[in-house]
Amino acid sequence: MDNRAPYELGKTRRIGVSCLALSSAPAHADGVESQPSPPAIEAARPYGRRIVLSVVGLGAVGFAIGGPLQGAIDALLSPVRRVDPTGLSSLVPGEGGWRYYSVTAQQPDLTTADYRLSIDGLVDQPLTLTWDDIADLPQTSWTRDFQCVTGWRVDDAAWQGVELRALLEAAGVQSAARAVTFYSHDGAYTESLTIEQVEQDEVMVATHLDGAVISRDHGGPVRLLVVPMYGYKSLKWLSRIELVDTVNPGYWEERGYDVDAYVGSSNGRNDDPVT
Amino acid sequence: MTSTPMSDRPTVATTTPSPDRRFSSAEVVVHAAFAVLIGIGIVTAAIMWIDPLAIAVGRRELVRTVHVTAGVLAPLPLALGLLSARFRSDVARLERWTDSDVDWLRSKDRRSGRIPVSRFNAGQKLNAALTIGAIIVLLGTGTVMGGWLWSWPTAARTDATWVHDWTAFALTAAVIGHVVFALRYGRGDSSPSAVAVAVERLE
């Protein structure tokens, strides 16, 4: 027994032995401690640290070439996702389908009957619109891709609603107004656009998605849709539109995302533009 | 040198735990704290990742804060554990592989006892190393995602998110496997060779 050298743990074993030596049996420890290193430890290899380093290396490679790699895997998975009835494939990291990021405790549960949208600030005529008021305005329909800044994209979402500039014309924008601030019903989430962006880009107060009233989870019954920009600009559960004299960065923009969030030319991303 | 047997039989009383205690109290506490932190990390990750859960719970900012806190604290029990000689010795045991470990992992009759295993089998060694590697990757990519040390561009944060997600999936699978094996084989290895070692300890 005694001449069996510990192959794994020569060093620690000897620490243990020397503790023993200090306490009770110095003579016993001599023979063990005088060995410079247990021979058998050469038979054991430090594979543990190699596995750790390999995993870290894989992670670094994934980070370095993450974009192309992710694109290749998404291309493989997207046909599966499209026909997968279980939704399980959406759990696989990467692009595909809607994802829900809710920053508040509960999402506002609003019916079309109690829905109200107010337009105020630097306007000639502050307005409070009901669901029916919005439905009576000229309707617009756009079928556009929806691109999230985190990577996922939904192809050909069919939106219906009222163009924002038509709503603003109804309220009468004063000349001092330079920007628009949007408020969500939860009170926590805001967004913004400049007056120029509202006039030049496709921006809609949307009421329908793919032929149905927008569901609560999608920000319904009424949400903003800023077609050419990343999804975080398209504020959900829209409750208030305020005309202001300067741009107020929104919720995500205070957390590092671009205020002018055009798809493909902002936030350091190169997605295909949405138009 | 050539007479060295491929086994790890305890020969010194002070480093051998009592036969009914496979791990020291310090190791049990380290394991429990680490398990709780990783468990919190997995649960909060699931809340942020699985849409129905995300919708039901909401409060993304709070969930994220809990997730990040648990992640940052996760290495702490391991670091404190290094103060314990028993913990250090078990880490070293987990880190060292022998030829018979590799053979054991490749064999189809791992549990038969034909290939003797020492205190930890190769599967446990593999799990430990993969877990540590995964934790390092999660901490690194998590730091990029949070943008604490450096103001990374969004594209880099997206790439880090992607690596973070895949690594988290792998780690979750490893944890589930770890728990399944623990439930199936109990707290120790019940293979004949391990039983033989345990019997020898008793003697």
Would you spell out the secondary-structure blueprint of this structure?
The complex is a heterodimer of chains A (275) and B (203).
Chain A: H1 10-23, H2 26-33, H3 47-64, H4 66-83, E1 116-121, E2 127-130, H5 131-136, E3 140-147, E4 153-163, H6 164-171, E5 179-184, E6 190-194, H7 195-200, E7 203-209, E8 212-213, E9 223-226, E10 238-244
Parallel strand pairs in A: 1-10
Antiparallel strand pairs in A: 1-2, 3-4, 4-7, 5-6, 5-10, 7-8, 7-9
Helix pairs in contact in A: 1-2
Chain B: H1 25-49, H2 51-57, H3 60-73, H4 75-81, H5 85-95, H6 99-106, H7 122-146, H8 154-185, H9 192-202
Structure description:
The complex is a heterodimer of chains A (about 280) and B (about 200). Helix content of chain A is about 30%, strand content about 20%. Chain A is α+β, with helices and mostly antiparallel strands and about 280 residues long. The longest helix of chain A is centred in the first third of the chain and has 18 residues, at about 45-65. Chain A is elongated and about 85 Å long. Chain B is mainly alpha-helical and about 200 residues long. Chain B has helices at about 25-50, 50-55, 60-75, 75-80, 85-95, 100-105, 120-145, 155-185, 190-200. Chain B is elongated. The interface between A and B is large, with 67 and 65 residues.
